[in-house]
Amino acid sequence: MKNMTKISEKKYKEVILYLAEKLGGEVKGKKKLAKLLYFVDFDFYEKFQKSLTGDVYKALPMGPFPVTMEKVLTDMVKEKKITIKFEKERVDYNPTEIYRAEKKMEGSFSTEEQQILDRVILKYGHLSGKQLEDLSHAEAPYIGTAPNQEIAYELAFYRGTNMDEDA
């Protein structure tokens, strides 16, 4: 049961820019960005049977992680769409990566895409990477996947998300 979705890099970049734009111009932390993308993709899949970015997620110790995210971010830096800065918040922690949007997104989203993106921003945008990690760890897709393996999108249907509720 392989995920046959094709990654749309253009769409992927738009999603990242949109998230940053809606969160005050930046997303604080790689973990936070990874989890927001997870919620966007799995919420979208749960409702519309397809992924929004097309990325594959692996069940890593800190939760679901999109395997293409870092490559997409590298491209976005080269294209001057985002800048990444490192902020040392605590001495005993690694610096936090801050993804700042430098350009507005160029395209637009379908009504369905917009609906899920806004829902994720409303529901999860204010949470920290750690809070999002904890939430994703409690979800069926993560629980039902062996460590370091690809998470099957079909597991989204076991999350029990109420898509009708607002955040």
Description:
The protein has 167 residues and is of the alpha+beta class. The protein has one domain (9-158). The chain contains six helices and five strands. Strand 4 and strand 5 (96-101) form a beta hairpin. Helix 2 (30-48) packs across helix 4.
Order of helices and strands: HEHEEHEEHHH
User: Biggest sheet, open or closed, and with what strands and sense?
Assistant: 3 strands, antiparallel
The number of helical runs is 6
Helix amount, in percent? Answer: 40-55%
List segments where confidence is low: pLDDT < 50 over at least 5 consecutive residues. none
Total of domains: 1
> Mean pLDDT across all residues, rounded?
91
DSSP, total strands: 5
- Gap from first CA to last CA: 32 Å
Summarize the structure.
The protein is an alpha+beta fold and 167 residues long. Helix content is 42%, strand content 14%. It has one domain (9-158).
Characteristics:
two-stranded antiparallel sheet; 167 residues; alpha+beta; single chain
